[in-house]
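STRUCTURE:
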């Protein structure tokens, strides 16, 4: 017979403590993995938000100044500066607006591209599914059948069912 204290066999308490520690470590590792993946996606989302905000800022705050400057520059470029008239200022302002919309569209397209790179934490989901599959297959050990005949033979009182409450 082997010595129960030589490290080859552990008590029920030791097994429960070991299982609890391993489950705790597994949960902590799952949480750490989820945090790492989410942190990366949050950075991508933040960059996309900054680009989108930049597009709005360009469109809203620079439109008046850019529109006037560009419209008068177009008018001057087409000959309006020397009294020959050049293009009508209406067309110059429309071209100025079209340029601003083009810049805002470019920034918006960059923002959409950054947002599309944000994806769910696939490694965490796969790991959690794997853990759940393993935990579903784990079955508790059945309790041994109680032998009433053995109690009668040994003159012991009948065993009382224990509650785990």
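SEQUENCE:
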């Amino acid at each position: 017979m082997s010595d129960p204290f030589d490290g080859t066999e552990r008590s029920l308490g030791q097994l429960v403590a070991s299982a609890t520690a391993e489950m705790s470590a597994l949960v902590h590792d799952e949480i750490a993995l989820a945090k790492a993946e989410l942190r990366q996606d949050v950075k991508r989302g933040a960059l996309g938000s900054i680009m989108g905000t930049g597009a709005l800022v360009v469109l809203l705050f620079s439109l008046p100044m850019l529109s006037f400057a560009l419209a008068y520059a177009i008018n001057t470029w087409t000959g309006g500066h020397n009294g020959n008239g050049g293009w009508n200022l209406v067309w110059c302002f429309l071209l100025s607006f079209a340029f601003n919309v083009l810049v805002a569209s470019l920034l918006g397209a960059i923002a959409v591209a950054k947002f599309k790179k944000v994806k769910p934490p696939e490694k965490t989901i796969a790991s959690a599914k794997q853990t759940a599959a393993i935990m579903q297959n784990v079955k508790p050990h059945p309790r041994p059948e109680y032998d009433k005949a053995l109690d009668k033979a040994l003159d012991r009182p009948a065993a009382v069912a224990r509650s785990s409450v």
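REMARK: The mean pLDDT is 77.
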